[in-house]
Automatic annotation (TrEMBL):
Organism per entry: Sulfitobacter guttiformis
Keywords for the protein's UniProt record, in alphabetical order: FAD, Flavoprotein, Oxidoreductase, Quinone, Transit peptide
Domain FAD/NAD(P)-binding, chain residue ranges per copy: 150-254
UniProt-recorded name of the protein: Sulfide:quinone oxidoreductase
SUPFAM superfamilies in the record: (Phosphotyrosine protein) phosphatases II, FAD/NAD(P)-binding domain
Length: 557
């Protein structure tokens, strides 16, 4: 007998025996549901035997038998009624526990998100991937087998998704492509740091989605619920099915605001802000303008996060503004990072440290934000220094800029496309999925060890496009991604340290040193960030014009 918890009120198990009843009672269970019909196996006790043993110990028992492979819609209602009737916690069992886990998954449809259901069953060792359509369909047997079908389907209409569609169209104009994304607005997220620094207006960083999706690309305005890679199918919320010949997965990253206790309740007030949200970036600048004295804390969570330099960009631009106003001496700047270094590529650290000293900022390494009390303006950090017990410290603040913890989206983490950590599992050079050879991924959601930046997606999109076209022609991958990412670190208004690097921290500068020396703060890099990169994004990258993004060819031996 192996009892596996799905919720605090329900666990499932393989076949139990009358002799197991005391252990079941000792584990705290007050009721049992049998989902295995009598007579399935020669070594199987009857339900009457189980019920008798349970009764002796005061445990309720119900018989809800399910024939293997024949779970009817009506069975779900019976199971739901059984759970409502019995005192909890309940242990449901069958031969292996799979039928019981399946019943629970379908019974929970509409009560929990698909991702929560799949996550709970996966953690218990049960794969519910084969019934996702039914879960999405309210637990009932679906009738939609997939009416819409496209040569290429792209999940996500962010920077990576639209750029990939545009790059494909530039190579093969007649290609039937569909992009799936429920959002109405598309954002130029690298601009939000500049909004928080008082340089850009928030409105400059947004466009309507419909104005950006390439001509003749179908826009399916819906959310993805699950993938069926064995069937080349995507299940949308509402149980619509979309079929594909080839699939590109790039829905971005999930900002997990809820993982920090008290954060959601105080964002946008009490001096708590974040440039990681469109509506909050202007509040950052309001706080900076108003602040004359006190403590300003800037946080960075454990990696991976998108744009790893963004938390310290907020610090530098704020420090610069206070320096220019002559109030910096009255402000205590604290940079609290869960990591152990200021920046992951050491070549850029000396230039950054000059500004840390200029703004007299305290670098607090291994400090991970755990909770905030906005009204009291207090925050708590777990300090996890190597070979040292974790210590929780309390800090007061007058202003706090928070970078939220980040994960892959829920529907990605529980899918068959994800690795053990929840990211899309790709070959880091070709960006092709390691298991399903008609699936590719780019952007923040995949597991290649590169910096998660818009600049990385700008290089990745043509690589994916080249390799998909090559695959359509029956050939092998022809383009490879070298891990390029760029992080323009805005260290003051008018100067930037332009970090450009690839896999392993190898420097990959786009310009000769005499034009822009990325290891130093330069005005040329600021001009690039402020004036050049936004139109490169809107008019180049999203239009299939691969400026500074020519795919690197795979060498043929």
């Amino acid at each position: 007998m192996r009892m596996k918890q799905l919720t605090g009120e329900l666990s499932v198990s393989d076949q139990i025996m009358p002799a197991d009843m005391q252990a079941i009672k000792d584990a705290g269970f007050r009721a049992i549901v049998c989902n295995r019909p009598d007579g399935e196996g020669p070594d199987q006790p009857t339900f009457a035997q189980i019920e008798k043993a349970a009764g002796k110990l005061g445990i309720d028992a119900l018989y809800v038998p399910i024939v293997s492979g024949k779970l009817a819609d009506a069975d779900i209602a019976v199971f739901d009624a059984a759970l409502a009737k019995l005192p909890g916690p309940v242990l449901a069992y069958c031969r292996t526990g799979t039928r019981s886990a399946t019943l629970w998954s379908l019974e929970q449809s509409g009560k929990r998100s698909l991702a929560d259901i799949l996550s709970a069953t996966k953690a218990a060792g049960y794969d519910m991937g084969g019934i996702v359509r039914r879960i999405v369909n309210g637990g009932m047997t679906p009738t939609d087998t997939g009416g819409a079908s496209y040569e290429v389907v792209i999940v996500g209409a962010g920077a990576g998704g639209i750029a990939a569609a545009a790059s494909l169209k530039s190579r093969k104009p007649g290609l039937e492509i569909a992009i799936i994304d429920p959002a109405d607005i598309h954002y130029y997220q690298p601009g939000w740091t500049m909004v928080g620094g008082g340089i850009f207006a928030a409105e400059e960083t947004s466009r309507t989605m419909g104005s950006l999706i390439p001509k003749d690309v179908h826009w399916i305005k819906a959310a993805v619920a699950a993938f069926e890679p064995e069937n080349n199918a995507i299940i949308l919320e509402g149980c619509r099915v979309v079929k594909y010949g080839r699939l590109i997965v790039c829905p971005g990253i999930k900002l997990d605001w809820d993982s920090v206790e008290g954060l959601v309740e105080t964002l946008g007030q009490n001096g708590v802000t974040s440039n990681y949200r469109y509506d909050l970036a202007p509040y950052t600048w309001q706080l900076v303008e108003r602040m004359k004295q006190g403590r300003a804390i800037f946080t960075q969570p454990p990696m991976p996060i998108k744009c790893a330099g963004a938390p310290q960009k907020a610090m530098y631009l704020s420090g610069d503004a206070w320096h220019r106003r002559g109030v910096l001496d009255n402000i205590d700047i604290e940079f609290n990072t869960a990591g152990g270094v200021l920046f992951g590529v050491k070549d850029y650290v000396p230039a950054l440290m000059e500004y840390v000293k200029k703004y007299d900022a305290s670098l607090n390494f291994f400090h991970n934000l755990i909770a905030i009390d906005g009204a009291a303006q207090k925050a708590w950090f777990d300090v996890s220094k190597p070979d040292t017990p974790v210590e929780r410290v309390e800090m007061e603040f007058d202003m706090m800029h928070v970078c939220p913890p980040q994960t892959a989206p829920d529907f990605i983490r529980v899918s068959a496309l994800a690795d053990a950590a929840g990211w899309i599992d790709v070959d880091q050079a070709t960006l092709r999925h390691k298991t399903y050879d008609n699936i590719w991924s780019l952007g923040d959601v995949m597991n290649a060890p590169n910096a998660k930046t818009m600049a990385a997606a700008r290089i990745q999109a043509p690589v994916v496009a080249e390799n998909i076209i090559a695959d359509m022609r029956g050939g092998n991958p022809v383009a490879q991604y070298n891990g390029y990412g760029s992080c323009p670190l805005t260290v003051e208004r008018g100067k930037i340290v332009l970090a450009e690097f690839g896999y392993g921290g190898v420097l990959l500068p786009s310009f000769p040193k005499v034009v822009i020396d990325g290891t130093k703060a330069t005005r040329a890099a600021w001009f690039l960030k402020e004036k050049i990169l936004p139109p490169v994004y809107w008019k180049g990258m999203l239009k299939g014009r691969e400026w500074l993004a020519k795919p690197e060819k795979i060498a043929v031996e």
